[in-house]
Design goal:
single chain, 107 residues, alpha+beta, 5-stranded antiparallel β-sheet, 1 helix
């Protein structure tokens, strides 16, 4: 299924796509980091029978990353049966993903 790996389709009124630029939406760039945590957690859970409780557990060395020039911070909270990972940018825009792969924008 893996919808995070699907492509994008962009329509144009031009007769050709030449000169038409596509830009991945900012939120989708943020979500790519959450999918990295999701797949890292799945691997960690297979090996340890529990979810990682820190990014370091998952082999992620830095919580901070830049997305389109805006600082974003990743975090994760895990237990034996579930976890939630969060990415928040400097403007407060926050997305989460859980162990079921459910993505949510926080308000």
């Amino acid at each position: 299924h893996a919808p995070e790996r699907w492509g994008y389709l962009q329509f144009t009124k031009n007769k050709s796509a030449a000169g038409v630029n596509f830009k991945v939406p900012y939120a989708d760039l943020q979500k790519q980091y959450l999918w990295l945590v999701y797949y890292s957690q799945q691997k960690y859970h297979q090996q340890h029978k529990t979810y990682g409780n820190s990014l370091a557990d998952l082999g992620i060395t830095s919580a901070d990353t830049m997305v389109e020039g805006i600082k974003n911070t990743l975090s994760v909270e895990g237990s034996k049966h579930q976890y939630i990972a969060t990415i928040t940018d400097a403007n407060g825009k926050t997305w989460t993903i859980n162990n079921d792969g459910l993505l949510r924008m926080q308000k």
